[in-house]
Every structure is written in C-alpha cells, then in structure tokens.
Design brief:
Distance between the termini: 36 Å
Structural class: mainly beta
Oligomer: single chain
Strand content: 35-45%
Radius of gyration: 13 Å
Strand order of the largest sheet: 3-2-5
Number of strands: 5
C-alpha cells in the first residue's frame, strides 16, 4: 500500500486578547466526515500536529493514496480558550 503526505495551509487566526504570534493550532484528520467541530475533531480525529504557536501550515504524513481525508485546525488563545464545541 502506497503512503503519501499533504501540506495544509490556512490563514492565521486573530483574537482581541492574544497576539497573533501566541495563538496555538492543533490539526486533526479523519477518513470520515466526522470532525467538523472542535469537539468532534478531538473525539473522532487523529492528531496530525499538536499545539504549536504561530503556524499557518502543517504536513500530514503516513496517508494512504486514494483515500479521502478530512482535516480540522483547532485554535487556542493564551487563555486556553478554543472555539465553541458545537
């Protein structure tokens, strides 16, 4: 089975209380469309990139060619606040 990788890019988040360089990101993947919210990403996803500040890109590796993947980037400010878990 062939494995591959993909580089994900996003626009950095902004916050009224946190400098943009201090905002942290965590990236999840799933082969099922079940990670649309932060709570679902944490519950159902596979961690691609753990909390890292000031990034706008991550590489997901060990993917299987021909498989459809879904990705979610969860954001956290310096107070530890993430988006609502809807």
């Amino acid at each position: 089975m062939q494995t591959t990788s993909i580089t994900l890019n996003w626009t950095k988040a902004t916050d009224d209380y946190t400098a943009q360089a201090s905002i942290q990101y965590r990236v999840y993947r799933s082969a099922t469309n079940n990670i649309a919210s932060a709570a679902n990403a944490i519950s159902n996803g596979t961690l691609v990139q753990d909390w890292t500040a000031n990034i706008a890109t991550a590489t997901a590796s060990s993917l299987t060619a021909g498989t459809l993947y879904y990705f979610n980037v969860v954001v956290k400010d310096v107070t530890g606040t993430s988006p609502p878990t809807q």
